[in-house]
Write a structure and sequence with these properties.
It is a single chain. It contains eight helices and eleven strands. By secondary structure, the chain is an alpha/beta fold. The protein has one domain: Rossmann fold (3-Layer(aba) Sandwich), CATH 3.40.50.150. Helix 2 packs parallel to helix 4. The radius of gyration is 18 Å and the shape is globular. The N terminus is likely disordered.
Length: about 280
């Protein structure tokens, strides 16, 4: 899973809608990307996401998909499936939702429930839009409604929780606002497993992120699985040291570096080593 497929798979109808709407392609702030399975010939469905062209646009990195989410999906497709099966899963810093939406589209029966979280209002709106883009029965019945996604999202995410129905899954998935810098222990959702990808990038956010992970573990989560792309060594070192200082332990459970043969279309950064860390409370 995780490799963007050629635009010919789904791109033509969306491009036509943009042209019909009179939106100059070269001036759009947002683009549609289709993410498909890594293995050739796999029947797994595509994930369609609306993304920002600028990886740092609107004051956030959350409006574009990063390679850590692709790596986390590979883990879930392989050994991670057993870890997630039948669990209440909470994702931190979900961004556009690549990991969670991929999981729910491919294996909707695997997890007991899935909660997407983020804090930036534009990111939350894109996440909710992308959930509708992939799961809305109305959009599937009437493709012309895709034109609604060509306009910019609203700037306010309200209410703080939204749910959407997942085909083949009894419980709806949830999109929720969670600000690491403001939340108290009582604000944290209940989880069996915590997941995240590419959330370790700013040293000033590390103490807040670690506090949230610890809080979720103390509320009942058995482990947190955090996929980290090795970009800023100092931030990662600070993060891992803080994990230990706050009474937790970590270990690397999976690592790889994507290459040209993987078909991972990343244009906003070079391909780097990605490591998946499992974090647990010390016993």
């Amino acid at each position: 899973m995780g490799c963007p497929v050629p635009s010919s798979v789904r791109g033509h109808s969306l491009l036509g809608l943009q042209l019909e709407a009179g939106v100059p392609i070269e001036k759009t702030k947002y683009v549609f990307k289709s993410y498909g399975p890594a293995s050739k010939g796999s029947p797994a469905p595509l994930v369609l996401l609306e993304e920002n062209r600028d990886p740092l646009g609107q004051g956030t990195t959350g409006l574009i998909s990063w390679q850590g989410a692709v790596f986390l999906s590979e883990w879930a497709d392989s050994v991670g499936g057993a870890t997630l099966e039948g669990k209440h899963v909470v994702e931190l810093g979900s961004g556009l939702g690549l990991f969670g939406l991929s999981l729910l589209l491919r294996r909707p029966e695997l997890v007991k429930s899935f909660t997407f979280t983020d804090c930036h209002p534009d990111v939350l709106n894109f996440l909710a839009l992308n959930a509708s883009l992939n799961f809305s029965a109305e959009l599937r019945r009437n493709p012309a409604n895709f034109a609604d996604f060509l306009s910019e999202p609203p700037t306010v995410f309200a209410p703080c929780h939204r749910q959407f129905k997942v085909h083949g899954h009894g419980d709806p998935a949830t999109v929720a606002r969670l600000d690491w810098t403001e939340c108290d222990a009582g604000d944290l959702p209940t989880a069996d497993i915590v997941v995240a990808s590419d959330v370790v990038y700013a040293a000033d956010l590390v103490p807040h992120l670690v506090r949230v992970i610890e809080g979720l573990l103390r509320r009942g989560a058995s482990a947190a699985y955090i996929a980290c792309t090795h970009r800023n060594g100092s931030s990662l070192e600070i993060f891992l040291r803080r994990v230990v200082d706050e009474g937790m332990r970590y270990e690397s459970v999976m690592a790889r570096t994507f290459g040209p043969g993987d078909g991972l279309l990343v244009t906003h950064e070079s391909l780097k080593k990605v490591v998946l860390y499992r974090i647990e409370l010390k016993v």
